[in-house]
Amino acid sequence: MSNLSGKHIILGISGGIAAYKSVTLLRLLVKAGAEVQVVITPNGKEFITPVTLSSLSGKPVVSEFFTANTGEWHSHVDLGLWADAMIIAPATASTLAKMANGVADNMLITTYLSAKAPVFVAPAMDLDMMAHPSTTRNLRTLQADGVTVIEPEVGELASHLVGRGRMEEPEKIAAVLDTFFASGQQLKGKKMLVTAGPTYERIDPVRFIGNFSTGKMGYAIAAEAARRGADVTLVSGPTALADPAGVTTVRVESARSMMQECESRFGDTDIAIMSAAVADYAPKIFIDHKIKREHDNVESIELVKNPDIAATLGSKKRPGQILAGFALETDNARANALEKLRRKNLDMIVLNSLADVGAGFGTDTNKVTLISATDEVEFPLKSKAAVAADIIDYISSKL
Ligand code: CTP
């Protein structure tokens, strides 16, 4: 457990029967040398006393926004900055819902919203609550926000029913955190460039040529790389996503502007991952007024080819730099991916096929094959966050 030694961990406890297991988790973390600050919800205190927790952690337990008799304010912002990781165990359905929606009505949630460090949740609830669409939706939202979900087990629940919803055992939760810190800083000192999202090519002031990319995959890659210590710049086309924590995000619109931002940074980059769905063509001329159906009579738009950003960077690549691309294919997937790997001088390519259910644009999951000149690894359908971790692991193994 030495990877936890000296680490600052916030242990968030919400109100469920599994809160008794948090005592074991706290003991394991402290024994491994971590400094642990417990933050408990008002309901959590119905299940476990702050005295037990403060004795074991050696720190006063935080629960209220301020101490009633002295008026001393407890700063969730300071706590958020202090932490190297935050684990919420147990995470009840209500706490997950509040986290997913930013309902900041207790100290645990305000601390979560202020946390700069990676956050883990270990859900615990009755099987029907666990299987409810709202819980599923909230967990999906949290995963998209970069939270790692430590999946509950199937077992006997507080209701004596048997099903999925039992909080993962404290030993396993501690092991997840230990593994996280073991791999935590493997990209420290590396400069990384990631492209994401679609590009928009303006036709007139209100219309554009674009595509269905949402940027989720590239944002997940940028977030994962930042978590592992890389200095990440994300050059993003128009998306509805928030800037990932700890990442320098540069917003662009067109392929040409994306190209400029990438070219000016590439010389200084160790690893570049091109996940943007760049529009291949742009209108030859931009019409500076809204095209009118009656007057303008525009029936065709002349297009010109956009620059190929990946291929341009590939032609400038120096030894030691790693360049990765994506291939989203509908047919002849593998052959097309290999051809792109070669033509764009990439070191690896992430192949996803639209033929696979749950893969491609807009979904929260993806199914990929990672291909380099020397090997090929096929992965099952996973969350985009887990796919991002696989991609970074693969690249790290090539460093
Ligand atoms: N790419 C890029 N610039 C472009 C087009 C693509 O950087 N103008 C990158 C993508 O980010 C991706 C890879 O190249 O990493 C492959 O993208 P894809 O659209 O599949 O390749 P194309 O070369 O456009 O091939 P086609 O559309 O003919 O399949």
What can you tell me about this protein's structure?
- With 399 residues, the protein is α/β, with parallel strands linked by helices.
- Helices cover 35% and strands 24% of the residues.
- It contains 14 helices and 21 strands.
- An eight-stranded mixed β-sheet has the order 12-11-8-13-16-17-19-20, with helices on both faces. The protein has a five-stranded parallel β-sheet with strand order 2-1-3-4-5, with helices on both faces.
- α4 (93-101) crosses α7 (133-144).
- The structure holds cytidine-5'-triphosphate.
- Cytidine-5'-triphosphate (CTP) is lined by residues 195, 255, 274-276, 278, 280, 306, 308-310, 325-328, 340, 344.
- The site of cytidine-5'-triphosphate has 17 residues, from α12 and β16.
Uncertain segments: none
Oligomer: single chain
Beta-strand content = 15-25%
Percentage of residues assigned to helices:
25-40%
What's the story with the biggest beta sheet? 8 strands, mixed
How do the strands of the widest beta sheet line up side by side?
12-11-8-13-16-17-19-20
Bound molecules: cytidine-5'-triphosphate
Estimate the global geometry from the Cα principal axes. elongated
List the helices and strands and how they pair.
Elements: E1 8-13, H1 19-31, E2 35-40, H2 50-57, H3 76-82, E3 85-91, H4 93-101, H5 107-114, E4 119-123, H6 127-131, H7 133-144, E5 148-149, E6 153-156, E7 162-166, H8 170-184, E8 191-196, E9 201-204, E10 207-209, H9 216-227, E11 231-236, E12 248-251, H10 255-266, E13 271-274, E14 281-283, H11 293-296, E15 303-305, H12 309-316, E16 322-329, H13 333-343, E17 348-353, E18 365-366, E19 368-372, E20 376-378, E21 382-383, H14 384-398
Parallel strand pairs: 1-2, 1-3, 3-4, 4-5, 8-11, 8-13, 11-12, 13-16, 16-17
Antiparallel strand pairs: 6-7, 9-10, 14-15, 17-19, 18-21, 19-20
Helix pairs in contact: 1-2, 1-8, 3-5, 4-7, 9-14
